[in-house]
Amino acid sequence: MRLIKTAIYNKQELREDDLYLGAWCSYENDEKCNLKPKTLHYHWDDRDKYYHDYLYLDSLYEEKLGAYVEIMNEIHNFDKDIEYWRVIIGPWLRSFIDVLYDRFKTIEIALDLNVISEIEVYQYNLDDWVAKDFSEYHSFILSDPWNEIVYSEVIKYFNFPFTVNDKFTIKQIKHKGKEKINVKSLVRNFFFRMQGFIPSSMQKIVLVEVYAPIINIIKLQIKLKQLACYGVTFDTENIALNNKKRVKLGSLSPGTGFENFLDEMIKKFIPRVYIEEFLSTRDKSLKYYPKNPSIIYTSTAYQRNESFKFWVAEKLQNYNVKYFIGQHGGNMGLSQWSQGEEHQKKTAHCFLSWGWSDSIYKNVVRLPSLKMSGISIKHKNQGDILYMTTSLPRYFYSHMAIPVAGQSLNYIDSQISFLNNCIPDVLKRLRIRLDSNFDESLDKKLINEGFSDNIDRSCLSFIKQVNNCRICVCTHNGTSFLEMLAANFPVIIFWNPEYNEIRPMSKLCIKSLVDAEILHYTPESASLLLNKIFNNVEDWWASESLQKTRREFVEKYAYASDDFTNSWQDFLNGDNGEFTKK
Q: Using alpha carbons only, what angle is made at residue 568 by residues 566 and 571, rounded to the nearest 5 degrees?
């Protein structure tokens, strides 16, 4: 049996004895082929294993991070503690450990079947796939070429026989010609470099990449008498790989197995910004960011903005600075586990939630959401129906309680089931808002199933798009349904509980949404309700019991206030030193 690792196989002809490593191998041309290759059972379809592996990988991450403190200090001639390196390399290291474990286990399971007789490996140069920073790394791990290479590296590690295809080389796609000028980016870069002229007194409380409408950010900064800080990531200098430095990162774990393989891959794949371009990025960051902040706040810069991370790490080491991170995703506080949320709570002095608390991390603080406060949406009882979708990558990319890898196909099927169960009058008024951040499979499926006329291709923001609609349908555990509940706008939610596990302390509130028929666990149940209330959404939404449930849920998970600037001013200017991390 021949093992097909990724969708790159489409350059070959399928055979009856082919085995797909996973659902990600499927390609749009498969439907035109009479052969239907078998697909390996995905190891994290066992969600108990998925959760227990999360706990193991979190423990392994802490172990590796601790071990790399001394090595990174030696490489860069520093004397920084673990919290410094957690801020800078933590997001990448945790992600890489999780992603690599998934790829390693998938190949291991396939080989253990003892049915694989043929594997083909393409030519590639690993140096071409060393990302410059976290953002590029993230784009790599969702791509077929990068995964084809990593699966090949695992196969080589296991010493499994393979043949080399010398007719095809995996290369990065180089964009030719001049890149389009992004006006917004040019403006941000201009103001970023002008920050040296801003008085320090107006940048004591520094807000960077705030997940909120621009009007709310302006209101808050006026209230605080502070000016904005525009964080950017600097262009890389294309410094050659320094293998003398990289070799120090390898072979921390003796013997064989995943942890030994992990060490070898870390030294080969750790982004250049953490090794070769470390000092230049650090120096630029300290030059352009505010010199004497007392509080640093962000919603999203903690992960991908390398210049921001370097600056924060330095300020936390050498200055009396408080570092706050604000919630920026709807599943935070609800999902049973999330490695991203865990990192933020471990890193920040305070994590500012949208209403919920945490029994373990005492540094979680409840404040009105900057994202949802002040939202005003007009409801029109005879308006359209806005149908909100999400996109899920074909490859696992982050360890949290959502559908991952091939489970995305279940999500796509549930959308088709919902639409197929809608009555004609509902479909006439239904507009589908697509999210193609990761994958366009749902888009193609909707077109193939005859729903192309329902797709709304406008570029309006979500709030503008839902304005004057009669109801919104939200199909995943994300921010959009919280925005609707906070704005008291009619909403129907549905998701598969098998792939959207809820943490114990949140289950009672989630059950209240189910009992009120706001949240549904099957697409058929959700569409049945929409068909029923379609002609009079207002009466259903205005019921006393439903509104009571909505208010109680919003208070805990979508807390918003028209007076949010005063609440934030009181917190940021007040005594917030009482909160400590775990």
A: 110
Spell out the residues 6+ positions from residue 520 whose beta carbon is closer than 8 angstroms to its own. Answer: 492, 493, 494, 514, 526, 529
* Secondary structure of 395-440 as H, E, C letters: CCCCCECCCCHHHHHHHHHHHHHHHHCCCHHHHHHEEEECCCCCCC
d(C-alpha 262, C-alpha 150), whole Å: 11
Whether pLDDT at 238 is above 90:
no
- Choose between 35 and 28: higher pLDDT: 35
Ordered strands of the 205-208 beta sheet: 205-208, 295-298, 322-326, 350-353, 364-366
> Residue 410, exposed/middle/buried by CB under 10 A (0-12, 13-18, 19+)?
middle
In 3-state terms, what secondary structure has residue 206?
strand
Question: Alpha-carbon distance 274 to 276, whole Å?
Answer: 7
In this prediction the pTM is 0.93
Instruction: Give 568: exposed, middle or buried? Use CB within 10 Å, 0-12, 13-18, 19+.
Output: buried
How many other CB atoms are there within 10 angstroms of residue 201's CB atom? 9
* Distance in angstroms (rounded) separating the CA atoms of residues 50 and 338: 12
Using alpha carbons, list the distances in angstroms from residue 321 to 218, 315, 492, 577.
Answer: 23, 6, 43, 11
Distance CA 417, CA 494 (A): 12
Q: Render 438-505 in DSSP notation, one character per residue.
A: S--HHHHHHHHTT-GGGB------HHHHHTT-SEEEE-SSSHHHHHHHHTT--EEEE--TTSS-B-GG
Q: Write the pLDDT tens digit of every residue in 188-218.
A: 666 666 666 676 777 899 999 999 999 999 9
Give the pLDDT confidence of 392-443 residue by residue, as tens digits. 999 999 999 999 999 999 999 999 999 999 999 999 999 999 886 666 788 8
C-alpha 430/C-alpha 443 separation (Å) is: 15
